[in-house]
Amino acid sequence: MRSVTFRLAVAFAGVALVGVLTVALLATRLTTTEFDSYLERGWVAQEQRVADQLADYYSDTGGWRGVAPVLASLSRWLGQRVVVGDNSGRVVADSAGQAGQTAISNAPSDRSLPIAVQGKPVGKVYLLAHEADCDWGRGDSAMGRMDDACTDPCGTSPWPTRASSAPQAAETRSTPPPKGNEQATTSEQRFLDATNRAVWLAGGGAASAALLLGLLISRQITAPLHRLTRAAHRVAAGNFHERVDVGSKDELASLAAAFNTMAGSLAAAEQQRKQLFSDIAHELKTPISIVQANLEAMIDGVAEATPERLASLREETLLLNRLVTDLRDLSLAEAGQLHLHTRPVELNELVTTAAAGVQAQARDRGVRLELALPEKLPRVAADPDRVGQVLRNLLSNALRYTPDGGTISVTAAVDGVYAKSPQRTGLARVTVSDTGPGIPPEDLPNIFERFYRVDKSRSRAGGGSGLGLAVARQFVEAHKGRIWAESNPGKGATFHFTLPLALDAGSA
User: Where are the domains of the chain?
Assistant: First the structure.
């Protein structure tokens, strides 16, 4: 499998090559076309100047007498043979010295320029290639016509003879006349070739630079990816402390930051997993040890199986069952598999029932339990068993930390959304407050974690199992509600949780 570096480099090179080839071909074609057009315009302008000079000569002298030296000079300047004919088509002057011997009535008209003086035509000028072997001198009169037998072995005849066939004549007429002498033509071609060569060299240089740049950029992209890959392999092997530093502020840096966050989360999860196993073992060990010791004593006859001892063993088994049930409920809630039997229920009834369950224990300790519930509280959409467990956990937690003679208050209310919503929907909020020692600020963010206790002594009597608040959070969030705590150390703690109102939001 080819590497990303190779594919990126090839992609950069391919795009650059296609772009350079396209630009080079278009530039070459346009340069050649425009250069040919430029040369053509130049020669047309030169030919027109020849016609204008001859017109001036005719106007100054009143005829063509003595024009031969002028034609010779023009021929040397243009590098072409210059022939002047009158209006009847007879040669009157020729830079080759053959004036008065040839008729040019068959010459192609597109190779001639009219000569006019004051708008009146006085002749034509023909610009022709120099003859190699053909002779205009043979004719049947002093101003005889071109010899029908004249051939052009060098291929330089300016026009076809009458013996030529029609297709040959058409082909000869379509051939453009030579422009300039050989030296000028060679110089122009060298200029055009140099221009095209410069275009191709520039294109080659651009393609090479693009390839080099593509290699550099691909290395900058793939090097962090290679580091991420190596780090991912190490994390997969169990090294959750692996981190990646990209050192940039682009998308790769965001990817590295996400990887580092993931690695941190995995490390925290691994630590929590280990702590969970330790906590479960600790929580299960104590009641199991108590049950085991009492049973062994009874079997050995050291202790008598009295109703009191059997009741104590029953309490320990109930504790074990509660721990296992809480752990099961937590795992189901965290996996999103906790089944809720939601229906419209009276929140006042749920609060009153939960308070009655701890009323006797609160009375024995001299703790006052106060309920402040509105008479017409809208019903909530909830599973009464799960919400009842949330209330019991919060009340038990408050009772555990409230000193003798303290107070526990339970209130319920409806958020303002209910009154303002046309659908009469919103949230109901329940608040449980105590007058205990409160929760230190550094412990507040963690009190809803599994097996977390503010009291690090792990005393079951003073700190509980550490699962009650974690279960409460999972149950409330399963109802699409929210639970949170507030505390003023030394003045007690307050727990709030919300539940969605039922669709009818009425009171039974």
Answer: 4-185, 251-334, 343-500
- Residue 422 DSSP code: T
Q: Tell whether the torsion through CA atoms of 398, 399, 404 and 405 is positive or negative.
A: positive
Q: Which segments of 237-346 does DSSP mark as H helices, in order?
A: 251-300, 307-334
User: Residue 177: helix, strand or coil by DSSP?
Assistant: coil
Is the pTM above the cut of 0.90? no
Place of tokens 């050989």: 182
Query: Where in 316-382 does DSSP place strands (E)?
Result: 343-345, 368-372, 380-382
pLDDT tens digits for 220-271?
777 778 888 888 888 888 888 888 886 667 777 788 888 888 888 888 878 8
Note the pLDDT tens digit of each residue in 475-494. 999 999 999 999 988 889 99
- Token readout for 502 is 């039922």
Neighbours of 406 (CB within 10 A): 18
Q: What CATH number was assigned to the domain covering residues 4-185?
A: 3.30.450
Query: CB under 8 Å to 326, separation ≥6 — which residues?
Result: 465, 467, 468, 470, 471
CA distance 469 to 497: 12
CB distance 485 to 444 below 8 Å: yes
CA distances from 282 to 206, 277, 286, 295, 466 (A): 72, 8, 7, 20, 11
What does the DSSP 8-state code read for residue 411?
Answer: E
Four-residue CA torsion sign, 92, 95, 97, 102: negative
Query: Running DSSP on this structure, what letter comes out for residue 110?
Result: G
List C-alpha distances in Å: 379 to 6, 481, 504, 508.
66, 15, 8, 8
Q: Answer yes or no: are the C-beta atoms of 225 and 4 closer than 8 Å.
A: yes
Fold of 343-500: Heat Shock Protein 90 (3.30.565)
Residue with tokens 């208050």: 409
CATH class of 251-334: mainly alpha
